[in-house]
Amino acid sequence: MTHIGKNVKTIDQKSALARVIQSITAWQNDVPETIDRLAEAAIEAISSDPRTVERQVEKVAFDVLTSTDRFAGAGIVSIHPTVTARARSLMWWVAQPAAGRSEPIPLDADLTELGTYQSGLEEIEWYRVPAATRQGHMTGPFVDYMCTDQFAFTFTAPVEISGELYGVAGIDMTVRSLENEIETLLEALSDNAILLANHNLVAISLDPRFATGSRLKPRDLETYSIIEVPGAALSIAVPH
Amino acid sequence: MDDRRSDSPVTAAIYAPIGDKALVPRIRQRLEDAIATGVLAPGDRLPGESTLASRFRVSLVTVREALQQLRATDLLHTRQGRGGGSFVAADSVQIRGLLESRIRALSRAEINDFAVYYRAITDAVLNTIAQMGLEQNLVGVRESFLRAVPQDGAAARSVQGGLDLRLAGEAQSVRLVHEQIRIQNEFGALLWMGLDDPDLRESIFSSHESMLDEMISGDTASAIEAREAAVNISLRWLLSRRNDAHRQERENN
């Protein structure tokens, strides 16, 4: 549904809605291009000299994470034998603004204590979905225990060479980075407006009954007008 | 500012010593538990001292002191040079002794209190998953749990720990995950000692399977009941082992 819900009819609300959409669009504007850069670095390294894949991806990931504070993490995940024979499966780097460090650190799943419990990377949504659909996907919001310990979205896209899947490339963005821009704009729309991700997952809710990361039940969902944000896996829910 | 406020029992708890002096015994206990429960096997090499220090987030001196104590009791030995490091030296007799003395040292009340704490956190995890409407996320958790077929107690405890952590993760709460990690570090290995027995292992794991099934079908109360059954099996085993150890001690005296 891209029509504007029947409750959003005043001129003020219409312009508030336009601003929310504009803000979300700007927030995720650089995502596809950034993921492409990571994927291209990996593809080039795999095709020419797989031993260099980690170094090449690291270069781009560092550039991505230090040139803007928009992204919390960036990298490649691969379970392809050509890659894993010469590099780690999880080639992912995390920005460290809170620790006052300018240099991103490599994500070491073993060191996060939770790494050991991950039964298989290929089962996790941010790997599984783009691997199956061969299209970009936004996962979340979910608490990223392996990375930021915060609610985050992970955007991933398949890394393919001549149709063969070599893994996924992606970036993390915290919900907080979106909250800051969106909250006030949502307030102008409705005191109980909700930003939903992937149809029914709560990303930001002004209504305190719904926690970030929870799933809106169908009977609750029915009580809202839903406005999808074009080009995003996000939608805005305004109570009828 | 009213001074009496800082004397109340509640505020006193805030200012209680953090207890960093206890770091050495805690690290030693952690490694001893890992050796006692087979997570670290004889011949296994520990990470280097500086790696251990950064993983425990303590100073190098603290790590060295803890390792020194373990060497003094012959649980570790150190080889110098290339391919050197700290190795688990314990043999099976030592391991059994270690385990028994650990269990013997616990009071019944302490063991029960572990279980209360464990229940409080795991109940909260299951309730939160249900409240947040995330039960269907457990389908994947269930699949990987069923795929794991551990062949011994140590492997089973690692599956157990993995299941508990994944569930805490699915509740989307950083704090619940950290509590779960704490539980596992402090007494996870002990609480699930019963997994050493193949029959108990089967009953415990089949209770876990029912727990996951009930969660996925939306019946949280039955899921909590099934989880409770699993805890009770292990708890009963642990308490009776403790009794045996004490009886033996009395007979020897």
Can you walk through the features of this model?
The complex is a heterodimer of chains A (240) and B (253). Chain A has 240 residues and is an alpha+beta fold. Chain A has helices at 11-27, 31-48, 53-67, 81-84, 125-133, 175-189, 218-221, and strands at residues 73-77, 90-94, 105-106, 137-143, 151-161, 164-174, 194-197, 201-205, 224-228, 234-239. Chain A folds into two domains: 11-26 and 177-239, no CATH class; 30-174, PAS domain (Beta-Lactamase, 2-Layer Sandwich). Helix content of chain A is 34%, strand content 25%. Chain A has a six-stranded antiparallel sheet, sandwiched between helices. A four-stranded antiparallel sheet of chain A has the order 8-7-10-9. The longest helix of chain A is centred in the N-terminal third of the chain and has 18 residues, at 31-48. With 253 residues, chain B is mainly alpha-helical. Chain B folds into two domains: 3-95, Arc Repressor Mutant, subunit A (Orthogonal Bundle); 104-252, Up-down Bundle (Four Helix Bundle (Hemerythrin (Met), subunit A)), CATH 1.20.120. Helix content of chain B is 70%, strand content 3%. Chain B contains eleven helices and two strands; from the N terminus they run ααααββααααααα. Chain B has a two-stranded antiparallel ribbon with strand order 1-2. In chain B, a hairpin with a 5-residue loop joins β1 and β2. The longest helix of chain B has 33 residues, at 220-252. The relative contact order of chain B is 0.10. The mean pLDDT of chain B is 85.
